[in-house]
Write a structure and sequence with these properties.
Structural class: mainly alpha
Largest sheet: 2 strands, antiparallel
Shape: globular
Oligomer: single chain
Order of helices and strands: EHHHHHHHEEHEH
Number of helices: 9
């Protein structure tokens, strides 16, 4: 038996504001996976609240807000803002420097070639030194190439980039990418009502010996199609960058 559900956007004005009840329903749905995982791992409510607090603080920094602005938005003082900044760097940002920053640089460059200064601006709160190191590593690995021109800009060296997910932090970085894609899809579906976005949930049964067919389909059919579409879009300024995530899991994995 196959069950498919879809989220079909209703036509309305772009960035139509959600009312208070709808906004709470949307955020509550987003927080349920985190709550489920926290429960499975035995985290206390205080520990989960702290992580939500740090994630919100990191998002505000990434949006370019200064600590004073964040303090006013969060209703906290300078001491509390400094504490959040210290904990964020100690537990998360320092680890991402060595594993996730390169992926973030690549994500930016997929949209369009950028200078180092432009990358630094987009990747706050990482320092220019951090971004330069990540860029140097990507150049050494030939994942990124310089673009000829008067100003030094950089672009991906190839359209398809397969990053290692073997080390733990690399796997966490892959999860960050997945959740970024989910966030983009939610904004497109629930806020912008953008019919170019697609959300589908499918539940179906597969014989044990046929599970590998899903991997075969991904490698032999879907990836070649994506590469062909990407090649056709080269040089077209109106071609949007599409973020696609693919995942499946058996229900007995829960």
């Amino acid at each position: 038996m196959t069950t498919e559900t879809e989220q079909r956007p209703q036509p309305t004005a772009p960035d139509a504001p959600l009312d208070g009840a709808a906004l709470k329903q949307l955020l509550f749905a987003c927080l349920r996976p985190a709550a489920r995982l926290a429960d499975a791992l035995g985290l206390s409510l205080a520990e989960l609240q702290k992580l939500v607090e740090l994630a919100y603080f990191q998002r505000a920094l990434a949006a370019g807000r200064k600590k004073g602005e964040i303090g006013a938005q969060f209703g906290i003082g300078a001491t509390k803002a400094a504490e959040l900044s210290r904990e964020l760097h100690q537990h998360f940002l320092d680890a991402e420097r060595g594993h996730g920053l390169g992926r973030q640089v690549l994500s930016l460059l997929w949209a369009s070639p950028l200078t180092l200064r432009q990358m630094v601006k987009e990747l706050e709160p990482f320092s220019e030194h951090d971004v330069q190191q990540a860029l140097t590593q990507l150049l050494a690995e030939e994942r990124v190439r310089p673009v000829s021109g008067r100003t030094a800009r950089y672009a991906p060296s190839r359209s398809i980039q397969r990053l290692s997910i073997v080390p733990w932090m690399a796997r966490v970085d892959g999860l960050n990418t997945l959740m970024d894609h989910v966030s983009l899809a939610l904004r497109a579906q629930f806020v912008r009502r953008d019919d170019r976005a697609l959300v589908r949930n499918i539940t179906f049964q597969v014989a044990a010996e046929d599970v590998a067919s899903l991997h075969t389909f991904y490698e032999a059919q879907l990836m070649p199609l994506i590469e062909a579409l990407d090649a056709r879009a080269a040089g077209k300024p109106d071609a949007p960058t599409i973020r696609l995530s693919i995942l499946w899991a058996p229900e007995d994995a829960e």
